[in-house]
Amino acid sequence: MHSFDFWTAGILLFAACLVAMLSARLRLPYAVGLVVTGIGLALLPGGVRWALTPELIFFVLLPPLVFEAAIQIHWRPFRRELPLLLALVTIGVALGAAVVAAGMHWLAGWSWLGAAFFGVLIAATDPVSVIAAFKATKVQERLHLLVEAESLLNDGVAAVGFAVLVALASGGATDAPHVALDFLVTAFGGAATGALVALPLILVAGRTGDRLVELSLTMLIAYGAFLIAEHFHLSGVLATLTAGMIVGNYALPRWFTADGRDSTITHWEFVAFLANSIIFLLIGSHEVGLPWLQLLEAVGIAIVLAVAGRAATVYPIALAFARTPLALPWGYKHVLFWGGLRGALALALALALPVSVAERDAIVTVTFGVVAFSIFVQGLTMPWLVARLGLLLGQEAK
Asked: Which residue range is the domain that position 121 belongs to?
């Protein structure tokens, strides 16, 4: 297993460029090509594999992906959809996690603690995978907003739930009021941290006409919000999401110069491309060498439960909003269900499991199995499903 260094980054960037060109020619999802390439590199003589750690995903690669997506979410449509989104990422995530946890306990024989950890981490629809898929598929604007915003919020809420479980496993208070309080403090504290980091730096950016300074300050906002929130055991994802939305809706149109706006958007698109590429190549590299045969049954059970859990997340919530202005067309429901891709976040959480969890090694392997299914099966069929349901730009939703 090779350590991750600048030489590694150079090799992976070159591979990512080749994959991007080839994927465009073959009309294949970019993420699929990257994972296949990562597997191929790992199968070369000598086994070119690189370490995939939760620190690398959380503190290096995840913040720019969340920030880049957040700066492009417009506040007005987001606010309009917020009741539906909040229901999906709270009640919906709880329902989905409960289905998976109960299934893994009763069908795979895992302990309740291990099953609960797995249920929470696999309920997260990872923004890395979802955003990569939907950038290549030009879907209707409302559907794009729902899928992207739900994946970002879902990501933050699942990470908060995971942190609460870690506290419980470490001997923290287990009564419902304390658990609920920890959850709320972690979530809202993260969002508040994002605002507290972004607003002062935006005021500084407003005093310069230098686009490079403006761009540098957005880097500080994205990483600063995430790292400060995580330092205080708050949600880094929700901090960066909040900071990104403030920058995108307030700073870019009002405070930044025209050159600064264009440079910022272009820069973050590049950083997101780089982070996406590294994550999917590392996922592919890490798939090789896992004990698949010993855990094949558990992987199969987990895939079925993950799909069932996602159905429990989407369809009951959509039904509850059926007679409201936020009602979803049937096609939207199906895309939200099948587009709940899993990826880097689930892997980072699995790798960060406490060693006290008896099923830790099994959970890591099973999570990789669910992620592989998500990328190869769901990722490959998403463009076909969107087109079949008439949800591309210019088509009428069914």
From this structure: 54-388
Residues 378/337, Cβ–Cβ less than 8 Å: no
42: in domain: no
pTM of the model: 0.87
Contact (Cβ atoms closer than 8 angstroms) between residue 224 and residue 198: no
Condensed to tens digits (0 to 9), the pLDDT of residues 16-60 reads: 889 888 887 887 777 788 888 888 877 776 655 666 788 888 888
CA distance 247 to 222: 10
In a domain, 29, yes or no: no
Quick check: is 125 in a domain? yes
What are the tens digits of pLDDT across the range 176-218? 677 778 888 888 999 999 999 999 999 888 788 788 888 999 9
> H-type helices in the chain, by residue range?
6-26, 30-43, 54-55, 62-70, 75-87, 93-108, 112-122, 127-136, 141-169, 176-205, 211-231, 236-246, 252-254, 258-287, 296-320, 330-338, 344-351, 360-373, 379-388
